[in-house]
């Protein structure tokens, strides 16, 4: 078994089983990839891919398990390379991050600016995507870190750490009737059309659940994935906005007011996803600490070393996670 063969099956699986496209990505020949896959299958005694003639049609059940392990092996190999580079050039490298829009627009800019000044020789890549796609990018090993409030799933090799809690705010035009109320209730919100996150985002699920618990049916005038779009629609008078309070920028949003929803909705949690055996670089630990000061290097290393899920959960529950 060769690492090259594991790379081939991994890339083929993530190129929609298109061997030709995989060959182009890896700058090699299609017959060469097909031959190496067959050699690996012959050695293992199982088919990784089902076929129709010369075309790969699907991943077999055995192939699913093999690909999962192949991904872990390839990620560990990348970790070895990163550790070597850590000794050769500790302040040089690449940091790839996948985030949802909420974090990309309202939490990361200041942190990325500060990090860039501290580590000018580190190439930063930020991929903004839906929660499900962020989870895929992390699972595929395409990124080093993922930041999202939903969609990320823990596994033997992936760990989720609480980065921060964020509150929902009530966004209204500056002359809206709700401003006159010292304390807003869920029943009052139910009287207005709402503008909030699309289905699949943590905020949307929380809002629906909260209304359901009170047997209320919210009216969604519009849902979106981008808070700037939502704020535009609120300004246009389409409805009341329910989105992260940290999305409010007083100078830019001077035609809006954000009202407290602390008594109505529980905070959501932004989770940091990372590989357990990824061989994190020093600058990656520095980035994590800037993003979440409670996640120091010692803390993260201790959490990553825990394979007992109950013990890990207990340690996470003791963390002093900030609220925004």
Description:
The chain has 324 residues and is an alpha/beta fold. 44% of the residues lie in helices and 22% in strands. The strands form 3 sheets. A 5-stranded mixed β-sheet has the order 4-3-5-12-6, sandwiched between helices. Strand 1 and strand 2 form a beta hairpin. Helix 1 packs across helix 3 and helix 1 packs across helix 4. 31% of the residues are buried. The mean pLDDT is 91.
Summary tags:
single chain, 324 residues, alpha/beta, 5-stranded mixed β-sheet, 13 helices
What is the share of helical residues?
A: 40-55%
Taking the sheet with the most strands, its summary is: 5 strands, mixed
Task: Return the average pLDDT rounded to an integer.
Answer: 91
Radius of gyration: 23 Å
Termini distance?
49 Å
Characterize the overall form: globular
Q: Tell me the structural class.
A: alpha/beta
Strand content: 15-25%
Quick description:
The chain is an alpha/beta fold and 324 residues long. It is built from 13 helices and 12 strands.
Please give the structural blueprint:
Layout: H1 3-13, H2 19-26, H3 30-44, E1 49-52, E2 55-59, H4 61-88, E3 93-99, H5 101-106, H6 108-118, E4 122-128, H7 131-140, E5 145-148, E6 158-166, E7 168-173, H8 186-189, E8 193-197, H9 202-213, E9 219-224, H10 227-235, E10 240-244, E11 256-260, E12 268-275, H11 282-291, H12 297-304, H13 309-317
Parallel strand pairs: 3-4, 3-5, 8-9, 8-10
Antiparallel strand pairs: 1-2, 5-12, 6-12, 7-10, 7-11
